[in-house]
Amino acid sequence: xxxxxxxxxxxxxxxxxxxxxxxxxxxxxxxxxxxxxxxxxxxxxxxxxxxxxxxxxxxxxxxxxxxxxxxxxxxxxxxxxxxxxxxxxxxxxxxxxxxxxxxxxxxxxxxxxxxxxxxxxxxxxxxxxxxxxxxxxxxxxxxxxxxxxxxxxxxxxxxxxxxxxxxxxxxxxxxxxxxxxxxxxxxxxxxxxxxxxxxxxxxxxxxxxxxxxxxxxxxxxxxxxxxxxxxxxxxxxxxxxxxxxxxxxxxxxxxxxxxxxxxxxxxxxxxxxxxxxxxxxxxxxxxxxxxxxxxxxxxxxxxxxxxxxxxxx
Length: 313
Ligand code: SF4
Ligand code: SF4
Prior knowledge:
Elements: E1 2-12, E2 20-25, E3 46-49, H1 59-63, E4 69-71, E5 77-79, H2 89-93, E6 99-102, E7 104-107, H3 108-115, H4 119-122, E8 127-131, H5 139-151, E9 156-160, H6 166-169, E10 178-182, H7 188-195, H8 200-212, E11 215-222, H9 230-240, E12 246-253, H10 259-264, H11 277-289, E13 294-296
Helix pairs in contact: 3-5, 9-11
Bound molecules: iron/sulfur cluster (2 copies).
One iron/sulfur cluster binds near residues 85, 86, 88 and 89.
């Protein structure tokens, strides 16, 4: 079985308990305005061009069989992306890390070989997390990786939107220890507007996950002026409170981490910002006063409340 993998990130500390390997699968049906990994949205491999690294050697112009690379008279480097088939010839020849293909076809065995290089960490409380993109877009591939991890005694987690029918997730559950899901907005109009998808599946799936007994972690990306209101957080908390196996709730204040990737894909970068410190504290108080165990994945601006708040299970 093969699938398209964007990256396998080793020694990851933010994708579940312990030191983990995070496998990023390509493809997502949502288009969140704040996406940190825009190169994982499309299902097919894509060319990234890092203009700041380009030394203008012209090697890519020479080797591209489609003649997609051009230098304008003012020296600027243009790529005819519409004709690019992501063959990787130019990125393989670039001497300056100016070009990279996001997404490569891998076999489950190849993914496992990379994962098992860090096996020692998995037996010390770490594990493997499938992320994306949306891992269930490649559901069979995801299931085989999870099952291979399970067979090797490795703790498994998935980072998922839950915005799809239950039948997509259910086959993965036997080999999953932990489901990390986003609850981006309670208001369905808001959710549709900023992610391109309705959130009704999310609520249905949460009810079923609650019955499954699976360990859960909930996360909300917080974006100033979009979902950083007390009313939104109150409603989200009301959804989360009945979840018997929720380990904790995490705030993810927006960080412009992925903006360079937008430029590398030839896309306009989102102009968003995190809630200010006062708003963040108000939202944290809202969740804490409702009895949530809360973690804030902070930015430098919010350093003073970066640490876990409340008691973690
Ligand atoms: S990836 Fe292939 S087709 Fe696309 S620009 Fe590079 S060499 Fe040309
Ligand atoms: S091969 Fe790399 S460094 Fe050379 S012109 Fe192309 S992108 Fe720039």
